[in-house]
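Job type: complex structure
Entries:
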Amino acid sequence: MERVSRYLKAVRSYLPREQQDDIIQELADNILSQIEDQQAALGRRLTEDEQETLLRQLGSPLLVASRYRQDARSLALGRRLVGPVLFPLYEKILRLNLGGTAVACVVIALALGRPLLVILPTILVHLFIQFGIVTLVFATAETSLTKSSPS
Amino acid sequence: MDVDVLENLRSELRRGCVILAVLSQLRVEHYGYALRKSLEEQGLAIEENTLYPLLRRLESQGLLVSEWREEDKRQKRFYCLSHDGAQILGQFLQEWQNLNTSLNRIVGEVNGGQMNGLQSCVSQTKSGID
């Protein structure tokens, strides 16, 4: 059951916080019911590999979580750049990246003894570059994702 | 022929039918996996990723009610048609029957088991021009 709980934990991390407990408890029961059902049919316990196959059939945690989100957020500039499946991960990475960049710039400025107001334009440029790179990576991933699975 | 085109058409056609089946089946309460299994046994297989979120959506629309209860030593969420849901299901079924009657008239000749010999009207038009 180690795999199942790891899987559920991954799904959980992409769900809106206020719904996490509820959705995961229900999904856990549905997955366990399915496993028990197959075990009863086979008359033995499922192997780790068989559990893995079952989870793979359910789909990636990112995909599973996206189906529960009713907001279906995405990023578009003319055409859609980041769709609702990848968006939660995009948001997470962006937050980490921009937060990290801002903190690093401030720390360096303080270490060098420069006033924050002076380096503000530099910080903004760095944030903009980071935003651009992360968005580019996700837009590329999105393109290949939509190509391989149109639905 | 593009497989994606057929796949898209198929999922559009199925969307409403799946809701009809789920609401009808939930005249008797079920939890997620049991519902999926019973629909599958009757010939309608629905992916987990479609069914489980759909149940929550139908509940938030007031068509279903749910209750956590212990069964087989685990908490399970049982869904059941609400009063509003029952009323709407009646109208929805009526709608489906009307559509079905019309469609059967429209595609009537296809229905006679000749689904493989379907012809496009392109060749007819062409020969008309020639």
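Summary: The longest strand of chain B covers residues 64-71. Chain B has one domain: 1-91.
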